[in-house]
Amino acid sequence: MTTTIKPTKITIKKVESEWYNYHHTVREIGKLREAIMNPFDDEPDTNTGGGSNSVRNPGDPTGNLATRLTTNKQISYLHAVVDAIDQVYNALPDNYKQLVRLKYWSKNRQLTWDGIALELNVSKRQAMRWRNEIIQATVEVLGWR
């Protein structure tokens, strides 16, 4: 017997916010990875006379880079959110996916629940039930409460 924990209102709002910001989050991960992989791009090389290389002692540059990428808490958190949304979205039936595109990923977010329901050819209540199922599935994948 499986028991599902009912998420709090704050959790529901947070999960919805993550769905709205999905594409922004994916871009943010890319920017963070780029900043870790190229940390000295913005700094001019002031070591013109040679000398000590203590600032950029490579040792094992590939290993150091991999460690920085895998231990960065912000990237790990954002990856967990993106992976959860991907997992839930890919498991959804087509009509649920259309709801996600209309509600969360549309550039024109002017549609009300009535407008979304009309686009989906279902009742407003049914569209909201689908949304609740999507949010609940995301909460379960993320392990939030």
Structure description:
- This protein is mostly helical.
- It has one domain.
- Helix content is about 65%, strand content about 0%.
- Helix 1 crosses helix 7 (about 125-140), helix 2 packs antiparallel against helix 4 and helix 4 crosses helix 7.
- The radius of gyration is 22 Å and the shape is elongated.
Give descriptors for this structure.
145 residues; 0% strand; mainly alpha
In summary, what is this structure?
The chain has 145 residues and is mainly α. Helices cover 66% and strands 0% of the residues. The protein has one domain.
User: What composes the largest sheet?
Assistant: none
Helix content: 55-70%
Mean pLDDT: 84
Give the number of DSSP strands: 0
Please report the distance between the alpha carbons of the first and last residues: 19 Å
What does the radius of gyration come to?
22 Å
